[in-house]
Structures are given as C-alpha cells and as structure tokens.
Amino acid sequence: MSSTREHRRPPESEQGERDRAALARERRGRRSEEERRRTRSGRSARPAATPASARIRPARPARPTRRTEIRRRWVALLSVVTVVALVYFLFFSSLLGVKDVSVQGAKQVSADQIRATAAVPADKPMLRVDVDEIRDRVAAMSGIATVDVSRSWPSTVEIAVTERAAIAFFDSGPGGDGYHLVDGGGVVFKTVKDRPAGLPELKLPKVSADDPVTRAVTAVLGVIPQALLKQVTTATAQTPASVEFTLAGGKTVRWGDAGKTDRKAKVLAALLTQPGKVYDVSAPELPTITS
Known about the structure:
Mean pLDDT: 85
Helix content: 25-40%
Shape: elongated
Radius of gyration: 56 Å
Number of helices: 7
Number of strands: 12
Distance between the termini: 198 Å
C-alpha cells in the first residue's frame, strides 16, 4: 500500500493573517513613497542657499579725504571771519557812521539850534546812535511839541519836529521879562518883548500846564471857530467850567466848559445879532442875553 501524502491547507485564520500582513506592507510602501515625494517637493521648494561670497554687505561710509577735511576747516574759518568783520563794520566802523543830521518841520525854532541840542555824534556808527536820547533832548526845547527821530541809511539821522503854536499870551506885568506865549495845552514856551498881535490875553492868577483852569481856558480857545477866535481879546475863568472871554466890541461871552462846541458856536452866532452885553451859551439849550 503506497503512502499517500496529505497536503493540509492552512487554516483559514492563518491565511487571513497573511493577507492582512501583505496589505499592511503594501500600505507602508505607499506611505513611504508618498513621504519620499513630499520630502523631494519640500527640498525643491526651499530657496537655494546663497553662497557666502554672494551675500550683500552694507557699504561702509567713505571716510573724508584729507583734502575734504581741510576744505571744511577753511569754510568754517571764513564764516567766523565774515561774521566778525560784519559786526565790526556795523557797530564800530565809521564807514556807516553819521554824516548828516536832517531837520524837518522847524519854522519858529532854528534848525541849527535843534541840531546843537540833539548833539548827534559825527561818524558814530548808525546802529549805536541812541535815537531815544536824541528825541528826549530835542523834546525838552521850549518851542517843540513833538519829536520823531529815525535813521535814514546809510548815514543820515532824521529829526522831524512839530512846533508849539501860540493860542494866547499873558503879560508878566511891570518889572517882568515880557509877554509869554502859551499853546493849546497851557504850556508857556516862549517869551517875546512886544505884545503879540492877533492873540487873546489870558487874565488868570496863574498860567501853567499843571493848572486845570489854564488848561480849560486854552482848550476852549483851541476849539472855537477861527472867525470867533479872531474877535477874542481876553479870556478868563474861575473854574474849569466857567470859561468866558471878551470880544473886540466889548461884549462878554460866557462859554462854560469845552463841551458842545459846535452847538454853542451856532447859538452864539445867532445871539450876537441881538443887542446885549453878556451872552451866556454855557447851556446852549437855554441861552441868555444880558444888557
């Protein structure tokens, strides 16, 4: 009896394990292939390393050459010298010094007298001329009301004056030094020997710019119409509000204070057409005439 070899089939469980192992190897193989592809694509996406020799280095600032440095020093030195020369030229040199003194507005007061009082130093640098001191010296002159002093380049000092205008006078009396001229502010600024023609005489106990009564009288004389002022021979007052004056024909006008000038002048012009001796317009709404 011949022996018969029996070929046993592997159990179904062993066959299943083999299949699962083969499937797992196949999956691992696919994953490995995918990882290799990703690795290759990642490497290809990376920028290539820049060689050290090709890297850009920041340029160092160029050091100034010796010639440039010397040129800079010369420029700085010349700038300093220029500034010093300019300061000397403007403040200490006579090249821009005073060469002339111009006087404007002088009629009653001599221009030479104004120049002498101003005492402007000749050849003194214009910028060092003290115009305030010059103005104060000229303003102290009796016949000068206002003064303006200015520089006119390159070498002239200009002095513009407004002289005082006499609006009245007063007599110093027997043994006095003459007749004193008074301006609209009550300032006594000049003395003359002869009685001034065409000016009213002040009949006041005291004549001074510091006296309120004097200022009130001269203020009235300064605002009344010229046609009326020419008729005034004397002016007086006891208080600042009681100014009165006498006209050439002997008529007396009680004016009051310096207010309502236009109204008072119109009322007085109408009243003077009527006979009378004293014309009171101190209250122009209620004027009166006294015989």
